[in-house]
Amino acid sequence: MAKTTNRPDEWKIEQGLSGADLPVLDMTGPETKALPPQVFGELTKDEEAIKAVGDREKLFNRERKGWVGFVEWENYPDKKAAAHQILTSQTFPPNPEFQLGPIPATNPVLPGTHWKMWHHAIGGELTQVPDDSWDLVQKEKHPDMLHLLQFPYNGEPPKRLVTAKEITPNSLHFVRNHGGIPIIDKEDYSFALDGLVKEPRSFTLDDLMDESRFPRIEKTVTMQCSGTRRIEQILKYAGQGDEVPQAPWAEGAIGTARYVGISLKKVIKACGGLIDGAKHLEFYGADTYFKDDKTMNYLVSVPWSKVKANEVLLAWEMNGEVLPRIHGYPLRVVVLGYIGARSVKWLYRIKAIKMPSRAPVQSQEYLYFPQQVGKHNLRLTDGIQIQEMPVSSAIMSPWTKQVVIHNGKIRCKGWAYSGGGRWPERVELSADGGFNWYTVPPQNMSKKRKWTWRTYEFDLPCDVEGWVEIVCRCWDNSLNTQPPDVRTAWNWGLHVTSSCHRISVYSVNKTRPLTKSRLDEFEKAGIPFGPITVPIAFPTQTWEDYEKYWRENDPRDADDD
């Protein structure tokens, strides 16, 4: 037999099951050319260039007493330049492939190898941050959390717990961190408010808690990551593949909590107000962020109009408890109705500026691109900066590909949300792919609030058996609703999967006599019904019954007479 030229997994590659190994087809000439995918060489390291930077323990040492894991980058261009030299004097392994191939069956799903290596490469105060951060995850989060990315930590609760309570317990609230977790002591904490304000100054936590100066506010707020339900886009069409901005979130990257704090507007007033045409507030987080071999702090901004409307809080309490470290202790920003990325944790500075922040998270990420924009033609200005989240919803039970035995109704649970101060007014479910819709009664939904989700439960009528497609959609109070399918929501950054949520369920209707009889046979034989792909271990029909049928009915083929 001649030697094969096929690769061992040739069939998988041809079927798109190992899409990263597919060649690019160049059809611009008379003959089609197969261009090989990128291959990464051996890792390199220029020890002399790194050594020339100097003593990293001194260069990147602790900035402030009581602030473990914090390095202030924004005021020190020389420090940024040194970190850049370290990162560009060596190479790092490529991002793991989790879109064009199987997603790892591990928890954590992705390790965050790049970010761990970058922290260790910089050294100094950053060396211990990955381990300290993971220790806090294990200490503060529920043991059933699904760890999508170990570092920086990204995690969501399992579906069965996402809507178990209208207010999400702190231990089950999703976490989308962009860097390691700085460990800050309250006694040593303060933040600066400067830039285009009349009287720049610093505030301690005790200053903010002084109710004679700042009226206290308590708000119930749903926070949602723009990556919620990203896995649906990934499974349909791959997009940008960085494991940190594009972690494979499911439906649990949303949570509702009751925050206590004060309005940022009052703090700005205490500084004499804005001056010289300031129109935006830039928030500085104490976590370290990386972009394009550059090192920085986490910076984003929101417009003054949002702050002026008392829709930006500085919060120190979450669900009646001191703000957990993993959620920003001792002080975080909570921006009502915006994507979670704007609610900066571990706040150490607020700067009044004239234009939106030019920091990478604001200007280069969290952008919603048109569908024909991608790796081949992307420009940052093609994307819309994502602020308010659109109306969205999800089904938490049952799960897609699940077998459901029922009596004519399938019990569905889930959530619905709309950002920007809008709220879910109506939730609808369909068992036939979206042709006929049933409205969830108001009494089956949680309380209506301006800044929160509504959870729901509903017994969805379903007479059909076999594979059915259950669909959920929401209408908010402005009568906005969701695009029909994930294709209409797809974008290169894989953000804002706001399309109707669709799941495939295998329906088994026990009210039908034949179905009930078959289920009784499985029970009598002591054989589980699932999975449906396992062949039936007993006869489905007696031969006597089979022969009787053909005696009483026409044969398979028609007579020619």
Automatic annotation (TrEMBL):
Record's keyword annotation contains Oxidoreductase: yes
CDD domains: SO_family_Moco_dimer
Domain of life: Eukaryota
Record key words, sorted: Metal-binding, Molybdenum, Oxidoreductase
Keyword Metal-binding assigned: yes
Domain Moybdenum cofactor oxidoreductase dimerisation, first and last residues per copy: 385-506
GO terms of molecular function: heme binding; molybdenum ion binding; molybdopterin cofactor binding; sulfite oxidase activity
Domain Oxidoreductase molybdopterin-binding positions: 178-358
Cofactor: Mo-molybdopterin
InterPro entries linked: Ig_E-set, MoCF_OxRdtse_dimer, Mopterin_OxRdtase_euk, OxRdtase_Mopterin-bd_dom, OxRdtase_Mopterin-bd_sf
GO CC terms of this entry: mitochondrion
Short name of any one Pfam family annotated for the protein: Mo-co_dimer
Stored SUPFAM superfamilies: E set domains, Oxidoreductase molybdopterin-binding domain
Gene Ontology biological process terms from the UniProt entry: sulfur compound metabolic process
Protein's UniProt name: Molybdopterin binding oxidoreductase
Organism of provenance: Corynespora cassiicola Philippines
